[in-house]
Design goal:
16% strand, 334 residues, 12 strands, TIM Barrel, globular, alpha/beta, twelve-stranded mixed β-sheet
Length: 334
């Protein structure tokens, strides 16, 4: 399934909920956001149907996200449903890790291929400051539980924030020294509350790590669904990855679309463009109509984002396909 620029779209990130048990400062207000009613969230059968039609069009990899996906009851069962779809080669999960230890066995039993755990710092005080809730001990227990399954690929995701102590990134990178886990540093995306914070580039992080661990060797090859650039430090079991979506944007090779928990098929983080899949499903559209609409809208995927191009930052300044997204990441899907 190719878009108008010839990119092969084979990866869909599926948000199963807008709810979360943390309140990370760059993602959600401290008081939370108004929760979407349960009736407005896609059912598991609806998600399975969309993913099944997507698989017929060429989607082969699915990432389950939120909000925090593990707060949705029965998630391992959904994962098992998706794994049985012909053409789906991989189903993975992104989580904050708080509930991971309690769910990991059932997730793996249902076919989980990989898990990404969001950890911005190992320091309990800073973790509480960022998440406004705390719980780093539960997260690390979840990490260890995931690593107890040798066939499960485990990654740690960190969104570096300007002003954090440099030792934060050294400690996080050290997880890959002692464990078979990849640690990735992801540049802050200026979406929702993220616009209020300054991130740290991958090059800055690498320079910090190089001072402590020496020069790293560039890793060649593809190590996941996304665009991370990986390096290997001497003596490390795992790799260190960098995803610089703003300063080194990779739109020309973008292979993904997003399905929000409310059923909007979203083509690019920066723009509202997409299609209301829930409306199609609940209006009685048959699979062929849904298939045609998915193919049509994915073909129209925008060429690229313009986060770093100095474009105006207000939705009123744009129109048509360039209408800017106004929702927070928790409402879009991480």
């Amino acid at each position: 399934m190719r878009d108008q620029f010839g990119r092969n779209i084979d990866y869909m990130r599926v948000s199963v909920t807008d709810r979360c048990n943390l309140r990370c400062i760059y993602c959600m207000p401290e008081e939370g956001v108004p929760c979407v009613s349960h009736s407005d969230i896609l059912t598991f059968d609806e998600i399975r149907r969309i993913c099944g039609i997507g698989a017929e069009l060429g989607i082969s990899r699915i990432k389950l996200t939120g909000g925090e996906p593990l707060v949705r009851r029965g998630l391992p069962g959904l994962l098992g449903m998706l794994k049985k779809i012909p053409g789906i080669e991989q189903v993975t999960l992104t989580t904050n890790g708080i509930l991971l230890k309690d769910n990991i066995n059932e997730l793996v039993s249902n076919g989980l291929d990989a898990v990404n755990i969001s950890i911005d710092t190992l320091d309990p005080e800073y973790y509480h400051k960022i998440t406004r809730r705390g719980g780093i001990e539960e997260v690390l227990s979840g990490l260890d539980a995931a690593l107890s399954y040798p066939a499960l690929k485990v990654k740690v995701n960190c969104v570096p924030l300007k002003g954090m102590p440099e030792e934060t990134y050294v400690q996080l990178a050290s997880l890959a020294k002692d464990r078979d886990v990849d640690v990735r540093f992801i540049e802050m995306m200026p979406i929702g509350l993220g616009k209020e914070y300054c991130g740290v580039s991958g090059q800055e992080i690498y320079n910090i790590l190089k001072e402590r661990f020496g020069e790293a060797e560039r890793c060649n090859g593809k190590f996941g669904n996304g665009p991370a650039v990986y390096v290997q430090f001497s003596g490390f079991q795992g790799k260190i990855g960098f995803i610089d979506a703003v300063t080194h944007k990779f739109c020309s090779t973008c292979n993904r679309v997003r399905l929000t928990s409310e059923g909007r098929l979203k083509l690019c983080l920066q723009y509202e463009t997409g299609i209301d899949m829930r409306k199609l499903l609940r209006s009685g559209a048959d699979d062929e109509v849904i298939r045609q609409e998915m193919r049509r809208v994915i073909y129209e995927k925008p060429a690229c984002h313009h986060f770093a191009d100095g474009r105006p930052d207000t939705p009123a300044s744009l129109s048509g396909d360039e209408k800017l997204e106004t929702r927070d990441m928790s409402q879009i899907g991480g």
